[in-house]
Amino acid sequence: MIGVTENLRKIRDLLDRAASDAGRDPDRVRLVAVSKLQPLAKILEAADAGQRHFGENTVQEGLDKVTKLAGNGLTWHFIGHMQSNKTRAVAEHFDWVHTVDRLKVARRLSDQRPRELGPLNVCLQINIDAEAAKSGVGPAALPELASAVSELPRLNLRGLMCLPAIREGFDEQRLPFARLRELREALEETGIPLDTLSMGMTGDFRAAVFEGATTVRIGTAIFGPRQTTLEANARVG
Ligand SMILES: *Cc1c(COP(=O)(O)O)cnc(C)c1O
Would you call 51 helix, strand, or coil by DSSP? Predict the structure, then answer.
């Protein structure tokens, strides 16, 4: 009735087709279902349909869902702005953080990651369009940050993430994703191996897959429009 199962199947088909059209292996494109401001019932429907990776962008709502759905074998990705006073909860409850953009936050996440959980997987968020309102490290400061983060003992630096400005048209949409791919290639040449490019959402995932996305973060196309905060909290709580 909710339609999440059917939506997931359609998106997975579109991702597989995008990968084959781009000459890539569809198994190398992971789908993270972005469940922020969506009720637990929809997440459970997605989990029943076989979806394992979910993304949340606020600590409080994310923690609530991680806790309530513990034991379901799900993998949780933190994809929201990372405040340095909220690192502990993220280090203790999430498997991935896509939005590390400064060393202070990375150090805290590493220090606070519980031993028994294994290293926390992290991506560095790049402010790919140099937008004043968006978080992310600039390309010029990236090599130094990547090198410092790769040394932290309780983190596993996996890759790069971006959230570009909205663009119309496939060719336009590919440009920022191509730049992220090139930034990864440049880092790999300096001896920092990265297996993840986290890029592409509901409106631009095909372009992202064409430029090498290994993780796409898709919400609306799977779950439908997001609820307001109050409604979602009431449904979750
Ligand atoms: C909300 C969000 C998404 C998903 O956006 P949709 O357009 O609903 O697919 C992806 N990435 C981040 C960082 C988000 O905050």
Answer: coil
Substitution site in 7, 10, 14, 57 for ligand 1 pocket (most atoms within 8 Å of beta carbon):
57
pTM over 0.90: yes
Which ligand 1 atom sits closest to the C-alpha of 34?
A: 4
Domain of 168, CATH number, reads 3.20.20.10
In a domain, 172, yes or no: yes
What distance separates the 2 farthest-apart alpha carbons in the chain? Answer: 51
Q: Is the pLDDT of residue 1 over 60?
A: no
Work out how many domains the chain is built from and give that number. 1
Separation of 94 CA from ligand 1 center, angstroms? 17
Domain holding 36, by residue range, is 4-232
Q: Is residue 213 part of a domain?
A: yes
Would you say residue 237 lies in a domain?
Answer: no
Query: What is the sign, positive or negative, of the torsion defined by CA atoms of 180, 92, 94, 166?
Result: negative
